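Hi F.,

I've been meaning to write this up properly since the lab meeting, where we talked about keeping a consistent format for the predictions we share between groups. The idea is simple: the sequence comes first, exactly as it goes in, then the structure tokens exactly as they come out, then a line or two of notes. No screenshots and no reformatting. I'm using this chain as the first example so we have something concrete to point to.
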Amino acid sequence: MTREHFRHFSPHPDDNEVGAAGTLFELAQRGCQIVYITISDGSGSTGEVEPEAIAAIRRLPRRCSWASSGCILAWMRRRCI
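Output, unedited:
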């Protein structure tokens, strides 16, 4: 049996979790290989924190929550404007 793959593209680091978490979780529970592809690094989300620091902060929740479920995480790391 071939394993199904699902690629989810999002422009910002938390868009997958906010917009599609339930669907992606259900697909993963059914054995689907989830591949997250995030375009930006989240560095432009606030003017209160240095861009590199906020980008690192925004990567952490995804690594913790989805990597443990077997998802593949891909970051294009484009700077936000």
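Notes:
The helical segments are 15-29, 51-66.
The two ends are 44 Å apart (CA to CA).

If this format works for you, I'll send the rest the same way.

G.
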